[in-house]
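May I ask for a protein sequence together with how it folds?
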Amino acid sequence: MKIFLDDFGIFLGRKRNRFIVKKAGEVKEIVADEVDSIICCSSGVAFSSSALDLAVQNNIQVVFARYSGWPYAVLMPASMTGSVRARREQFIAYNDERSLVLAKKFIAGKLVNQANFLKLMAKNRRQTDPSLAERLYESGNLIDEVNERISREQGAKIDEKRQQLMNLEAEGARYYWDSIRQILPSELGFTGRETRGARDPFNAMLNFGYQTILFPEVWKAVSYAGLDFYAGYLHADRPGKPSLVLDLMEEFRQQLVDRTLVGLITKNVIKPNEILAAEAVEEGRVLSKDVIKVLLASFQERLDSEVMFNGQKGSLKSFIHLQPRCVVRFLLKEAEYVPFCLGW
């Protein structure tokens, strides 16, 4: 489970092997063994050093994030797993053909999941809205065509082809998000994907899912695989930009975040008029507390759900942690890299 701290006046302490969460006279005790991460989104939260020590002892990631952006700090144990050899190869691979192979694989994972998600929704709407189903299925096929064009790109290293790959990825994204727009109720006011500073309900939920839930999970997986967060392939180098984390996130955006949110909206679990916070308790808050609770529970349920990938059955979370280790095996020339994709 995740401990989510998002309001002024919360105190996180420790009592032996349990976390103590105190707020306005209420006290909740949570056994450390049941916690996989602690997420703090408020500047008004206080921690005891003993609680942070308990988190480190139990390999519990502590994430500090702002409502309006990516996490700005992550607390993890100082010791890491993985080999120095893998990290050396990670840097060397940037200047050979392995960089382009991995970049293409990361995009393939994203595009195949996008296409298959649209085809799944088309299948579910074949009887109730055949016209929409046909459009969704066609968009899925168009994304497949984009992926096929990407697969034919050749070069000696990623720097020669990055812009071309990103242009093709953007073409697939236009088909995908236009289809998502057609599925969502018009009251949401979703006209397309917006990232930084989005305040419309659906984009705000997407950003919360990507930034506050998926990003820390992939960060942790990359860390335990012994790879460098900042030395990616698809995403260009930039100071402070964890490019490899962003690379690996591409394969899981649809399966963890998009699928969960579309389900919550189309099944009317979350209603459009309930999503945004009525009043900003602190600067940057966009989503209501009730919606955040639903999102946290739903994302956790999806992370724990069992899926079948590449002949293996496991939780979605287990595959998030498996993929960076597969990158290591590819870098060490021990195995091919297979992007995470689910069927429809």
Summary: The two ends are 28 Å apart (CA to CA).
